[in-house]
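Fold this: U-box domain-containing protein
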Amino acid sequence: HLSSAPSNGSKLAKVGAVPILLGLAQDERSKIGSKALITLCNIAATSEGRKALFDANAVATLVDILAKHQKNRSTAREEMQEQAVAVLLLLSQNNLRFVSLAMQAGAVDLLVSLCEHGNTRAKEKASTLLNIIREISSNEEECSDSILP
């Protein structure tokens, strides 16, 4: 993949490829969706890419992909779920905004289900992401408690 080079991931984000790739990631044909998710994962590895993904409402779209593939299980769809969680993991890094967006989109229940029913790598990624969400949520609560009299 050309997108695996960090400079190319940034370039793809800068030229506006993220909304197009998010649309392709929702494609029912698993090869197209899978390739788009891999590219989005490479883009999410860059700061410019993460910004572009947030600007394109990627969290909600990725959670929708998880929900859609939750209903229809197959090996290809499990791989797409794993890739969607991988992008979400990259978006979650040091980002308070991520947690509220993920919770609004209904990610927690889907991630719990993925921990129970996903393939091994998807389970690991979903579990890691749930831990990040819990950690950030508890840190936010501690901060708000310390500010209030």
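The two ends are 53 Å apart (CA to CA). The chain is about 85% helix and 0% strand.
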